[in-house]
Design a protein that fits this description.
alpha/beta, Glutaredoxin, 6 helices, 31% helix, 19% strand
Length: 188
């Protein structure tokens, strides 16, 4: 019984640490419809990858905040990749949601959750920030409250501000919360 519990904890830690802080990614590649060929991390001062969902109420609570992040940071040299990796949400649902919400950015579909698997993304919303060298410098939540009026820590903004200022990210990892990413079934 104890051995199985230890193995379970070890496997969980291994899965969570597949792409730890300090890992490098030269390009963000998503294979779904409408996806750009690749987003080169060296092409901007920072690159933020944010996993979102059509149906998740937690992700949807962030719709306005994500638009604000995009509008505030793109002029400062940050590029974004907003990604939907849910196998249960079709490309047409993703596109319709994007239009209905009025986002100023495109959401790309991560077919087969390839990028989500590579980064170890588990929730929507969940963010990853890479510096210009392609080094992962932040992973976790957008902020600390689903309810915008209760936000005390704006973790993603703090990470982007630090990268833009050439400083270390004050808190490099936080625990993301939200709905789980509904992964595609992998064939052996």
């Amino acid at each position: 019984m104890r051995l199985s519990a230890v193995l379970l904890v070890f496997c969980s830690l291994l899965a969570a640490g597949e792409f730890p802080i300090g890992s490098r990614l030269a390009a963000v590649t998503v294979t779904g419809p409408g996806a750009p060929p690749a987003i080169q991390t060296s092409a901007a001062k920072a690159t933020a990858v944010v996993f979102v969902s059509v149906q998740c109420p937690v992700s949807n609570a962030y719709n306005g905040r994500l638009a604000s992040l995009y509008n505030d940071y793109v002029p400062q040299g940050v590029q974004f990749a907003f990604v939907n990796a849910n196998a249960t949400e079709s490309p047409s649902e993703v596109e319709a949601h994007e239009k209905r919400v009025g986002w100023p950015f495109q959401v790309v579909k991560d077919n087969g959750n390839t990028l989500a698997d590579k980064l170890g993304a588990e929730h929507t919303p969940e963010a990853f920030v890479f510096d210009q060298a392609g080094t992962l410098v932040y992973h976790g939540r957008v902020d600390d409250s689903m309810n915008e009026s209760g936000v005390k820590q704006r973790d993603l903004r703090a990470a982007l501000d630090a990268v833009l200022a050439g400083r270390p990210v004050p808190v490099a990892e936080t625990r993301a919360f939200g709905c789980s990413i509904k992964r595609a079934k992998q064939t052996p």
